[in-house]
Amino acid sequence: MDIFPSETESSTEAELLLLQADLQTWIDQVCDLGPYSEQDLPEAAECRARLDAGVPLLPGGVRPSRAAAQAALQGLMKLLRRYLPDSTQALDILERSVAEAGGASALLDMVLGGRGNAMLGWARRGGVADDLAVFHAVLLARPFRTWFARRLLRHVEAGMWSHGYCPLCGHWPSLGLLDGQEDGRRYLWCQHCGSQWRHPRLRCVFCATEDQSSLSVYSVDGLAGWRIQGCGGCRRYVKEVRLQQRREDAPCDALRLGTLALDEAAMDVGLLRESPLIAHHEREAPPLGFHAPSLRKASHNEKPLDGPMTGRCQ
Ligand SMILES: [Zn+2]
Ligand SMILES: [Zn+2]
Fold this sequence. Notes:
By secondary structure, the protein is α+β, with helices and mostly antiparallel strands. It has two domains: 10-155, no CATH class; 175-313, FdhE-like fold (Alpha-Beta Complex). Helix content is 40%, strand content 10%. It has a six-stranded mixed sheet with strand order 3-2-1-6-5-4, covered by helices on one side. A hairpin with a 5-residue loop joins strand 1 (175-179) and strand 2 (185-189). The radius of gyration is 19 Å and the shape is globular. Mean pLDDT is 86; it is low at 283-314. The structure holds zinc ion (2 copies). One zinc ion binds at residues 166, 168-169, 171, 190, 192-193, 195.
């Protein structure tokens, strides 16, 4: 596959793609367990009103079944043990800490309830490293958010959602996908629920500026097909890949994990990574009657994909 960085070893690439396939199977299995009831889904009119107000669709306060939560945890731990063979001890500590905190349901309450600080506090008390705790928590919540995404995203019609945060769960995107089959239109991908949504290429994902003097494109040696869009205004960035395949088939988790060098390159030029635990609506809930910024037609002088090499990764 040629969308991984050229220096990625083929064994690493194969491993990442295997992980992607196993993750997908696990997500499907948990979704098939029916973690929620169809009655937990908001009505179409409510979805429409939420989208109009810039509020993501995922309903708050709905708890998944205990059986699905427990099965999800077991499946995920098995997966992590397979792909992180050098972290056995850390995973033992993690598993014990989850049990002591009240099991999968208690952890999911914190994560799905947007209580990231409570989750980190729990992890630190149990001796679980922040990185592992966040990685695990985001993945554990994924099938539960995906269950809603698969049922609610049909309400997000083209042009209806102009924000950079996810229309389903409200988190900031982890990847930008430039669709080779749609004239390079940009879609954003959310690692929390697996959703993709369209977003103008000439707008900052985070602060929505369209001032082109604030937006920069960085390419990195050895990462052909990849770029970083960084914003001088809010100093945040998104990694973007030009896809040769259907974006629905893109192995997004593998791509995200296989390009951590890009995150380092971004930080080297002074850009900041958005915390994966922060969802837009949890930080600043839009007031009733909130209006989305109006869409402006994209200008014709977009910077080329392979822009000036101002960010480098050795
Ligand atoms: Zn999402
Ligand atoms: Zn910005």
